[in-house]
């Protein structure tokens, strides 16, 4: 094993600490306590776990959090009514609609109802559109993509001119990561399920971002020697030797890949913890924007 392991846990802990200090300083200066509202619809156990982690992280950072849990049968009107109330609520600086919503609800339409000043997940179409265009900057960048960029900036002295290959084109990861890499002056290739010869494309990458959602699909021989590999995948695979009956693996076959890569993120302990750290940072930013 030769690759440098990119320690997302350690980097995220540093960001938690920074946010915690800045929140304390705000409060000491008599400014408002940052507040995050989460909206969780339905009973997907993984979503409940993620939302609970976000509330815990807020609490540790001194950020208020307000959880709204709605039944799986919630109507679009009810969901959007709640969003409108939270848009008006002065205690709430950031609003997060946990994805995915149950079938039957129009996620894009719900997200378009968010006040863009409270869109700490960066999923409002205006914030995404600004990411894709020159002109006004997005107010918020989605947490997982922003976390990927922090990891790359911590690992590489420069992104400019590098060839980045993004595997996956989802709204929440692949597309925004590709746009951020373009903004950082990388040369970007976006690959997806219809790409011909995925391994050959991946092998051209100086920076390889895997966000496909298929356990250990990226093999060691897909990786250019010395490349920086960011694994966004979180896949549960059965493992009877574990207490929980499963273990988490990424989209990259870690052992093989770490023989070839220059640097690589582990799963867990890579991108995952960065997501929550960036959410705290965005919530603090939302509160700061509401000061003026
Ligand atoms: N509106 C919205 N915003 C999100 O930010 C959002 C979402 N919907 N839907 C689901 C995904 C998933 N997500 C994760 C957050 C933290 C970890 C995390 O901390 N993972 C740790 C530990 C994982 C574990 O041990 O279970 C790790 O990878 O090391 C992972 C995944 C946020 N998401």
Automatic annotation (TrEMBL):
Cell wall biogenesis/degradation as UniProt keyword: no
Reactions mediated catalytically: (6R)-5,10-methylene-5,6,7,8-tetrahydrofolate + NADP(+) = (6R)-5,10-methenyltetrahydrofolate + NADPH; (6R)-5,10-methenyltetrahydrofolate + H2O = (6R)-10-formyltetrahydrofolate + H(+)
Stretches assigned to the Tetrahydrofolate dehydrogenase/cyclohydrolase NAD(P)-binding domain: 142-289
GO BP: L-histidine biosynthetic process; methionine biosynthetic process; purine nucleotide biosynthetic process; tetrahydrofolate interconversion
GO molecular function term, any single one: methylenetetrahydrofolate dehydrogenase (NADP+) activity
Domain Tetrahydrofolate dehydrogenase/cyclohydrolase catalytic: from-to ranges: 6-121
EC number: 1.5.1.5, 3.5.4.9
Binding site for NADP(+): 168-170, 234
Pathway it works in: One-carbon metabolism; tetrahydrofolate interconversion
Cellular component terms per the entry's GO annotation: cytosol
Keyword set includes Oxidoreductase: yes
TM helices/strands, residue ranges: none
Subunit text: Homodimer.
Family designation: Belongs to the tetrahydrofolate dehydrogenase/cyclohydrolase family.
NCBIfam families named among the record's database cross-references: PRK10792.1, PRK14186.1, PRK14188.1
Name used for this protein in its record: Bifunctional protein FolD
Lineage of source species: Bacteria, Bacillati, Chloroflexota, Anaerolineae, Anaerolineales
